[in-house]
Amino acid sequence: MSTIASPRQILGLFLFIFLFLYYDINNIWLKTISDSKGSRLFITDWKLAQEDQAMVHMKDQCLVEDIKFTRPEGSSTIYEHVICPTIAATHPKFICNKSSTFSYALLAMEDFIHFLEDKNFTILYVGDSLQEQMYHAFLCAVEAEEALVAQKDQQVTLLLERSKRRVQYSASYFLARLPPECIVTRPKFNVTSLQNEDWFQVATRQSVTHIVFNTGAWFTPSGIHIHNRKATREQTRLCFERHLVPGSRLYYLLHILSEQYNIEMIWRDVSPAGICNTKTHQLEESKYTNYYNDFQYYNKIGRNVTVNLLKGLVVPDVYETSMKYWREHMSASDTMHWCSFMTYNVPSVWNTKLFQLLLSQTKPDV
After folding, report:
1. How high is the pLDDT of residue 219?
2. DSSP for 125-185?
3. Hey, how many other C-beta atoms are within 10 angstroms of the C-beta on 227?
């Protein structure tokens, strides 16, 4: 005797089939990105991504007194703890009205510039305002050391002039055109300039030997739309993947520079960011960064592409080290950027790690 399924059972069956197909389609869209040979490059399972977030949350609590940071909005005021007044005066937005809360072993700039000249290395920083902060930190350290040497020896060393020939910066928030389905939605910015590729020309014409790059801070649901709709978190991640993996415009440019111009590619980790909640005393996602927990996820892709496909390098431990110094952010309302122009600042730590990386990768002449 055959059994006739009840309407509830039939409905349940259809629902199961629908969810199965929906999940399978999303797997094709979200989980697998293949190279020209069809091999799987990334497994971007959302459940795994959620588990990774446990590694990202801050262990420290942000106390109320730690968030009372102030900075001179639009002011060129130079505080006593600023070590490079010339560089700082041109970028006052990164000046904080507080001193550093940590110390770190920084490399001597004179020795490092001499190293770059001796090896005929030219470094190009490429990326957003955080890469710019890294470049400013380098110039600041050079200016401070040059002033110290000039005061001691009564001579002008021209260290800053020499350094600008060896270390350069090119602003480009996305480094290349985004995939056509991923649209930038920040009306107050010039979208074209955010995706400019001028850095590519600089790299080919200035005899650049190393490119230090990063992208990711703008890949948030508030910053990306897909097909004229606000992107979901999963879709935003997909945009980042498609922007960087083989087949993308950005990967094409990086691959040309790596293969044809023999330029070493160096990925700089996305640094952590969030905002302090004065009620819970916990660091949270800020309105500007939006989903800072995703940044480690972006790092995995950036590292994979740079090391495994472009045969490049990674500035080590940037994320982990920066986590320790989260109180060095600009303010409780801007926990994306870092206080700069002091003897010790987080972008200078990144530079020190980069310089140590270059030194360790260079074999002595035999």
Report:
1. 79
2. EEESHHHHHHHHHHHHHHHHHHHHHHHHHSS---HHHHHHHHEEEEE-SSSSPPPTTEEE-
3. 10
* pTM (two decimals): 0.76
- For 332-338, what is the mean pLDDT? 76
Q: What is the DSSP letter of 329?
A: B
Residue 172 has pLDDT above 70, yes or no: yes
CA dist., res. 193 & res. 139, Å (int): 24
Per-residue pLDDT reduced to its tens digit, 93-130: 888 876 677 788 888 898 899 999 999 999 999 998 89
Helical (H) or strand (E) element with 315: strand 313-315
- Taking alpha carbons only, the member of 228, 237, 201, 210 closest to residue 42 is 237
- How far apart CA 92 and CA 112 sit, in angstroms, is 27
Tell me how far apart the alpha carbons of residues 238 and 243 are, in angstroms, rounded to a whole number: 8
How far, in Å, CA of 135 to CA of 128, rounded?
11
CB count in 10 Å sphere of residue 222: 16
Q: Is 338 helix (H, G, I), strand (E, B) or coil?
A: strand
Local structure of 201: helix, strand or coil: helix
